[in-house]
Amino acid sequence: MRFGRRIGAIAPAKLSKAALLAQAREATGLEDFGDPWFERPMDVLLEAVRGEARLNDAGTLAAEKQFHHVLRDRLYAQMWFDRHPEILARPIPHPVVIVGPMRSGTTRLHRLLAADRRFAHLRSFETISPVPRPGFDEVLAGKAEDFRPKLARRILRVARLANPRTLSIHPTGPFEPEEELGLLVASMWGMKHEAQWTVPSYGRWCEGEDATPAYRHMANLLRLAGWSQHESSLRPWILKTPQHMLDLPALLRVFPDARLIFTHRDPQQVVGSAASLAWNQTIIYSDHARAADIGREWLRKTEVMTARMMEARKTIAADRLIDVQYDAMDRDWQSTMARVYRFLDLDMDSALPGMKRFVERSRALKRKPHRYSLAEFGLERDEVYERLERYIDRFDIPIERGRAEPGRRLRARA
């Protein structure tokens, strides 16, 4: 990238809102971005990217491409809504939403449920590119091929070349079930930005804002995905992304009949794994990332997420939620899933063969285990346990034994 810029083959990235909006309009020939609310988080994010992220040459180019991709998709989404108003009329009945901290087993649970054909789910290429391109009517008619899976395959290949560890941290493929994080990014919203760039001011700004407009747009993109899949609007969606830990009130305003599955894991594993994921992405885009800073930020973020989740749960009826321990899923996933299915009032027998196939396929996808430690990020487990003691006690989370801890209940477990 540096060489390309030196010889003039690659133009400097444009990271101003006016330039990015104009570039998207010019590329598509469209004008309507939909609800202008997204410009508020976009302003804050751009300022943080320019002032805090310290991106390298590859990082600035990738950032420009990402902003362009999101803005172009907003224009195309509004085009589809205008052409096919029936899209926005599609119901989203009683979705099943998995809510848990990063790295707490949400992906495994999501993909097990996605193996059941009674549920609808997003595929990886649809969260990377949520919006079909112009000409998709030809795809619907069987006269052309959807370009998005090819694009997703290229993007995943580049990500693995940039840092091969990404495959062991979050194994995926274009058609694997995937979370709706990209649908929130469509409103310039969410932790994805914090996990790839050093933008603490943006993260704290989002923590103080109402995310309802971002969730409304996410719901409309789900409707668009269902329409493009020829998906029955009667099948409940399976949703999950750790962002819901922060934004449960917004999620429940948009999906008032959602059924919620909460996942829990030893906080030292959650914080260490989340910091590792963020570190392995941030170092692609910046040469100035510091592991200790990333560790501190994801400890803070996990503390905020768990506190806000616990507060929001006070308003949710007990028969609408269930708690699942990561350790229980590790020990006996079939028994744990049977308990989840009883909560959903569904028979699990028809889904079990698909779940077993997923378990076998996931072993093939995950070539190497994800290895990390708190020490890599300047953290100690006693501090993690102390900061997240209320969360551990509230959900009786199994934690690592053999330590001296402040706090009576933690000492008792040790």
From TrEMBL:
InterPro entries: P-loop_NTPase, Stf3_sulfotransferase
Source domain of life: Bacteria
Identification of the protein by name: Sulfotransferase
Species whose genome carries this gene: Tsuneonella litorea
